[in-house]
Structures are given as structure tokens and as C-alpha cells.
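ok trying this again, last paste got cut off
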Amino acid sequence: MKISSDTSKGTSTDRIEKQILLRAPRSRVWRAVSNADEFGKWFCVNFNGKQFVAGQPIQGKITYRGYEHLVMEVLVERIEPEHHLSFRWHPAAVDVTVDYSSEPTTLVEFKLSEVDSGTLLRVIESGFDQIPASRRAEAFRMNTGGWEEQMLNIEKYVAKG
């Protein structure tokens, strides 16, 4: 499946936008995005809870090879069933010797739209221009590639049923 980037707004250093057409009903894609256990299976993280709850943090151990020593923490911001889920996190927080808690977070949004052939999933991560300049470009680069890989992961995951 083709993953596309939204370039209609020109090149941006503040936001990453990816979209993919998933050949699955919106309810299935929504479950994969909004259920913490299912999300973790395709995103490679083992969350310590099963639910994403607006206004609450959730964390889990990353299971992706080479990053197993890291814990992912997100603050769930908004949930609109079968349409929108968003959370905040510290992008590319991969150095365990660094305390990222004083840095601004980026906003990650999952937007689902029903289309004739399935579900269009758009992922938008914004707020990179607020990240400290010393690591902004690397965080943007890492997450751009990361979202491309995650789009393939969710495609494979929802195809399994």
C-alpha cells in the first residue's frame, strides 16, 4: 500500500503528515488505534494498561529491537470514537541519560475517515519547531522514518483481522 505525505502545505519543519488507505472497516482501524493493547502490538510497545483515557498518561516498555531499554510515555489528549485520537509525547527520546521532562512535547493525531475502499488513516505529528534546536532536526528525521514504518505496521496488523 502506498504511504503518502501531505505536501500541499509545502515543506514544513514543524509537522509530519502521513496517510495510508487501509482495506479494513473504520471500526477495525479504530480498535487498532484506540485500544492500548492492540496499539502496542503494531507499534511495538507493551503498555501497562489496556485503555487510552483522555487526560491521563500511559506508559509501556518498547519492544522494538534495539530500543527495548526504553519506556514510552504518552499523555492522551483527545478521543473521539472512530474519528480521532491524539496524544502528546517527547519525540525521539532515546537517550536514557537525558531528562526530557522539561522539553515541550509534540502532538500526535490519528484521524480516520471512511472511504469506499476502506479507511483512510492520517497521522499528523506537530510541534517540532518548539523542540530544543540541538535535537530538533534529528527528532524530525527519526520520526519521519518512524511514521513511515508504523503505517506499514498498522496495515499488516489490521489485515490480519
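PB: full thing came through this time. The longest strand covers residues 71-80.
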